What we know:
Layout: H1 2-28
Amino acid sequence: xxxxxxxxxxxxxxQWILQNENLMKQNSS
Length: 29
């Protein structure tokens, strides 16, 4: 149960990081 929670959190953080990178690319161009 704890592991599933960690995997879900990591997945959400990974998506957040991808969104941040996309925003930075848009701002720099």
